[in-house]
Amino acid sequence: MTPAAGRAADPIVDPATVLTVFVVTLTLLPARYVLGPLGAAGTPAGVMAVLCLFWYLAAMINPATTPLRGRQPLRAVMLVLLCSMLASYAAAMGRNLPALETNGADRGLILVAGWVGIALLAADGITRLDRLEDVRRRLVLCCTIVGVLGLVQFFTGLDVASHLAFPGLQANTEFSSVLSRDGFNRPMATATHPIELGVVLVMALPLALHGLLYAPKGRRARRCLPVLVLLVTIPMTVSRSAILGLLVVGLVMLPVWPGRLRFWSLVVGGAGTVVMSAAVPGLIGTVSKLVLNIGSDSSTTARTDDYTAVARSVHDRPLFGQGFGTYLPRVYRILDNQYLGSLVETGLVGLAALLAVMLGGWFLARGARRASRDPETRHLAQCLAASVAVAAFAYGTFDAFSFPMAANLTFLLVGCGAALWRLARESPEVSSGAPRAEANEATGASGVEGANGPSGAGRRDGGNGASDANGSDGASGRDGGNGASDANGSDGASGRDGGNGAGRGRSAGEDRRGDRGEDRHGDRGGDRGGPGGQGRTGLPSSQTLERQTLPRPDGSKEVTGP
C-alpha cells in the first residue's frame, strides 16, 4: 500500500506541521530578535524548540499518544547529550561563578533542551515518508527565500533584516547584517553571520538537489530555482567554511550518482564558475584565495592560536569542563571551533556526546539507505547524510552553538535522518509518495540509483498491487487486483494477471506500451491473458491450472477451456 492508502485523515496539528512552523520561524525571523527577558536563549525558534520537548514528554504520559513506538537509537544519543550537559552544569555550579557565567550556564540548558526536543520530535513524530517529504520541501523553500535575501544584500548592501522586526521582539545586539571582505558585501540575511548563512545554505543544498532529481513531471523547472539560488548565494557569503562545505557535499553525493549525472554535475559546476567570474569579477579569485591560502591567512592563524590559549582550562577541568555556556567571548575569547569550545565548556564527556550526535546522524541516515530498496528513499537518505556531514565539518571552523540557525538546523536534520531510518525499516519498498515515473529523465534512468534500482527494487503502490517505479508511467502493476508485478519482469513474469487469476486479462488497447498486449520481455500476442487463457507472462495462472485438471463429467478427458 502507499503511505496514503488506508489511513485516517491527518490531524490538523501533527509533528510535521509543527516542524514546518519551526523551520519558518528559524529561517525567516532574524535571529537577532529575541523575547527580551530571555536574552540570547529567547529567539522565537528557541522558545518553540523547548515547547516541542514539553509536547514530546507530555505525549509519553498516555499510551495512546506516546511517540515511543519501536526502536529508535537517537533517543539514547539525545539522552547521552542531555546527561553530559547536566553533568557539566552541575560541575559549574559547584564553584563560585560570576553572575554573567551563571546566566550563560542557565541559557545553555535552555538551548540544549530545545535541540533535544527538535531532534526527538522529528525522529519519533514523523510517521510517514510523505510527511518527511513535506518537511524537506518546506525547509528548502525557506532556505531559498533566505538565499534571495542574501543576493539582495550582496548586490545592494541593503540590511533587509532590520526591516523584519515583529511586535514583542527586540534586537539582542545592534549590528548591520551586511559585512565586507575584499570589497565585497558579505550578506547574512536573517542569520547572525555570513559564515552561518553560508553553512546553512550548504546544508540545505543536498535536499534541494533531491527535490530536483525526483521532481514530478512538469515541475523540474520550478525545482531548479532553489538549487540555482543556493549555488549562487553560497560563494557570495565569501566564507571558507561554506566553500569547503560544497566539497563535502560533492564527496558524499557524487559516488552514489550514476556516471551520466556525475558528468553533467561537473559540467554545470564548471560553467557556473565561468559565469560567476564574468558576472561578479574578482569574486571567484577571492574565494579561491581563501581556500588555497588556508594555512597562512590571519583567519586560520587566529584559529590555531586558540589551542594554546585554552590548554590550561582543559587541563584544570578535563572531564566536564567549566560549564556549557560559561566561556563567554566578552570575558575570554572567541573560539572559532565548536569541538574545541565543547572541550573547554563540557570537557571530554561533552565532546564525546557531541561527536555521538554527529556520528549518530550520519550512521542513521546511511542505515536508512541500506535498509530501503526504494531508489528515491535511498537517495533522500544519502542527502540527509551529506547535510549532516557538512554540519560535522563546519563545526570545526566556527563556534556553531553560538549561531541559533545553524545549531537548530543541525539537530532537525539529525532527527529527520533518524525518522527516515525508522520508516525505511518499517516499509523498505515504499517510496515517499512523489511521482517517479518521470523523476530522473536527466540521468537516462528511472532513478538516480540506475535503471533497475538496487535489487530490482524501487516499487510504487498501484491499487492493491505493488508495481515497480521503473515501469512505463509507473504502470507495470496497474492490474488493480491483488497481485504484485515487477517492472523488470524477472524470469519473464510481469504479473499482469493480478491476484484474481486469468480472465482479468487486458484488452489490446489497455496495455500502456501500445495496443499489442505484449509482455514486457516476451513475444507479442501469445500472452495476452484473454478470458480463461494464460496470464500476461505466457505462464498459466493459478485458476487456469485448476481448470485444466478438472475432468469432464463422463470422465473421458480433461477440460482444456472454460
Automatic annotation (TrEMBL):
Membrane topology: Multi-pass membrane protein
PANTHER family reported for this sequence: LIPOPOLYSACCHARIDE BIOSYNTHESIS PROTEIN PA4999-RELATED, TEICHURONIC ACID BIOSYNTHESIS PROTEIN TUAE
Pfam families listed in its UniProt record: Wzy_C
Entries under InterPro entries matching the protein: O-antigen_ligase-rel_domated (IPR007016), WaaL-like (IPR051533)
Compositionally biased tracts (Basic and acidic residues): 507-527
Organism: Actinomadura yumaensis
Keyword vocabulary terms for this entry: Ligase, Membrane, Transmembrane, Transmembrane helix
Biased amino acid composition, Gly residues: 495-506
Protein name, entry field: O-antigen ligase family protein
Listed Low complexity bias regions: 466-475, 484-493
Keyword check for Nuclease: no
Subcellular localization, as worded in the UniProt entry: Membrane
